[in-house]
Design goal:
371 residues; alpha/beta; Rossmann fold; 2 domains; 5-stranded parallel beta sheet; 13 helices; 7 strands; 43% helix; 8% strand; globular; binds thiamine diphosphate; binds magnesium ion; THDP-binding; branched-chain 2-oxo acid dehydrogenase activity; EC 1.2.4.4; magnesium ion binding; oxidoreductase
């Protein structure tokens, strides 16, 4: 007999349980826990967050298009998760270090990625999608949850060096079932590591609904590890900014790790290799379209008389420009010669590596003689 799995709550209740500052129709509400963290945020800053989210959605759409046109092997869309990614990433200091999963296009955008950085890995051109040291973002992690351990290890280093930095790791709802994530939380709590865990609960782990990952709100698990947590409406960019400022302040001030569960929704497929119509209902998708994070902020700004045609036009132009540059960078990438895969493996050459290089070179040459 298969176990009976009941969702923790339906979508409406699910969101009621999370902290927010903007309701889905764009009404600003008071929240004593979050308000102090965004007291300085004015209309200009909100417009900048809006611009970020619109540009990110355009980058994401271009990634999907490039994959469909055969220019990328794969793409992991983040449509619907813009508020979570932009709100949390805009709270970071440049010196902080991020350990992301494959879906964090918005986080690398906020860290200053160049147009080619979004596609390089998905095109299979190089091991890392960008220079991790320059962006202070570790390579996009495909192994579910592994990056949480890397973040905690890095955070222990920060602690050892007495550096004024925080390590931040992003992962999904499905990842919370991985041993790695739980082990990372135990280490972080035991040693008081300056690390922030950001769980993007987008309701799905490929075709598995969040109800089979947890029978309890995910943020509720963290206190059991000794880590304070906050469950935030992940489609409310202002609330995400506030929650992340709380978490960063907590970790930076030597109080140890903090945990955020951002309740959001993956509007698109898991990746371009997935067909979500096979496992989820159109009504569910429709209910989340009504909570679109960009529309929500637009509604608030419009009602406040702070969204003019000039901002919208400039934003659209910026988005189109980034997408154009991203496409040009993608199509212009020069594929490295096959033997270059050996170059970045070790800092110094050694005989084992040289032997492998030689063998691979001979293998490649065998095709030339056949031709
Ligand atoms: C250790 C490991 N197991 C399985 C997979 C295959 N896999 C790729 S994505 C994924 C689901 C992840 O879901 P979630 O953590 O919710 O993140 P999301 O994709 O929704 O952002 C799985 C099982 C993997 N990449 N690594
Ligand atoms: Mg997920």
């Amino acid at each position: 007999m298969s176990p009976q799995i009941t969702p923790i709550a339906d979508t409406e209740q699910d969101l009621e349980l999370s902290e927010r500052l903007l309701t889905p129709d764009g009404t600003r509400i008071a929240n004593p826990r979050l308000d102090p963290f965004v007291a300085d945020v004015d209309a200009a800053q909100l417009r900048a967050l809006h611009r970020d989210m619109v540009v990110l959605r355009r980058i994401d759409a271009e990634g999907v298009a490039l994959q469909r046109q055969g220019q990328l092997g794969l793409w992991a869309p983040c449509q619907g998760q813009e508020a979570t990614q932009i709100g949390t990433a805009r709270a970071l200091e440049t010196r902080d270090y991020v350990f992301p999963s494959y879906r964090e296009t918005g986080v690398i955008y906020a860290r200053g990625a160049q147009p080619g950085d979004y596609v390089r890995m998905w095109r299979g051109e190089e091991g890392a999608a960008y220079d991790p040291a320059a962006l202070r973002v570790a390579p996009l992690q495909i192994i579910i949850g592994a990056q949480t351990l890397h973040a905690v290890g890095y955070a222990l280093g920060i602690q050892h060096d007495r550096a004024d930095e925080v390590a931040v790791t992003y992962f999904g709802d499905g990842a919370t079932s991985q041993g790695d994530v739980n082990e990372a939380m135990i280490f972080a709590a035991s040693y008081g590591a300056p690390v922030v865990f950001v769980c993007q609960n987008n309701h799905w782990a490929i075709s598995e609904p969040v109800a089979v990952q947890s029978q309890y709100p995910i943020a509720g698990r963290a206190p059991g590890f000794g880590i304070p947590s906050l469950r935030v409406d992940g489609n409310d960019v202002l609330a995400c900014l506030a929650a992340m400022r709380w978490a960063l302040e907590h970790a930076r001030s030597g109080q140890g790790p903090a945990y955020i569960e951002a309740v959001t929704y993956r509007m698109g497929p898991h990746t371009t290799a997935d067909d979500p119509t096979r496992y989820r209902d159109e009504e569910e998708l429709e209910s989340w379209r009504r909570r679109d994070p960009i529309a929500r902020l637009e509604a608030y700004l419009r009602a406040a008389g702070e969204l003019d045609a000039q901002h919208l036009a400039e934003t659209q132009n910026a988005a189109d420009q980034v997408a154009k540059e991203m496409r040009a960078a993608c199509l212009g990438m020069v594929t490295r010669p096959p033997l270059a895969v050996f170059d970045g493996v070790y800092a110094e050459p050694h005989t084992g590596l040289e032997r492998q290089r030689h063998e691979y070179s001979a293998y490649l040459a065998s095709f030339e003689s056949e031709a």
